[in-house]
Amino acid sequence: MVNWVEAQKPLLHWLARRAGLRQHTVELEPGTVISFWVPKANVSTKKKSSVCNSRKEEKKKNKPAVVLVHGFATDGIVTWQFQVGSLADRYDVYVPDLFFFGGSATNDPDRSPAFQADCLAAALGRLGVQQCTVVGFSYGGVVSFKMAERWPDLVRYLVVSGSTFAMTDSLSSATHKRLGVSSSAELLLPESVEGLKALLSAATYKKLWLPDCFHKDFLEVMFTNRKERAEMLEALVISSQEARVPHLQQERILLLWGENDNIFNLEHAKNIQEQLGEKATLKIIKKAGHLVHLERPCIYNRCLKEFLMLVHPEVSQK
């Protein structure tokens, strides 16, 4: 039997290559590797012989870097399938897979978002990225906040959707109660068609009908490494007494939120904006839930590119 979710991956990979990206793996140390989609020019080993080609290569190298950090349900290229092509012509787009997603893995026992952030920063350094805008979604937003705080020289600007500084035990309990689940694993690591339907219902504004065979295929392909991911969810939650507002040195931060996000609601987004102060701007996208970048990709992309144009006015938006 054909798994239709698995069958779509070659198409997504073809589209990524058409946008000028290629797959690349960074080995930080034996047993710890991070897989990326990166600009082809970044890992090209071919020497340019002509002055014209050299100038083109230099122009490519000068493009601002944008790093897209995925959430908990799918890997990078699936999460950002509608953003890569929209950005890649004017920005160097990097799409990593966090540990235990896609081709990324580690034998280190640390499952914390801080560990993910430090390793991602190190991998970007290996790729020659000195400064970038990080765009984080959901769990990837938590990792992105950590990166921004711990690596301010690398993360120059920050965009976050449907996320939080840290998942405190009180926030976790309130979210579980609101969504009618007993744990994060019950919601984010579904084991049945019914569980996956509940996750999609919580994450979207518009409820779409999909056949059960699609849900079964999705469960088989996307929810691998369950043990390690369950450990990640456990490491995600911290005591409310330990929680604090991170000291972020970035001059501009965009909070790009779905108006109907049921996981991290609009009130939560406004609290984050208030805590960050004047450096943070909150943009709300109507008729969108937690998966705002997938439900309203055109509006999301427009808002994201407007922000990137603001912080990178040297980039021509033709």
From TrEMBL:
<feature type="domain" description="AB hydrolase-1">
    <location>
        <begin position="64"/>
        <end position="297"/>
    </location>
</feature>
<dbReference type="Pfam" id="PF00561">
    <property type="entry name" value="Abhydrolase_1"/>
</dbReference>
<dbReference type="InterPro" id="IPR052370">
    <property type="entry name" value="Meta-cleavage_hydrolase"/>
</dbReference>
<dbReference type="InterPro" id="IPR029058">
    <property type="entry name" value="AB_hydrolase_fold"/>
</dbReference>
<dbReference type="InterPro" id="IPR000073">
    <property type="entry name" value="AB_hydrolase_1"/>
</dbReference>
<protein>
    <recommendedName>
        <fullName>AB hydrolase-1 domain-containing protein</fullName>
    </recommendedName>
</protein>
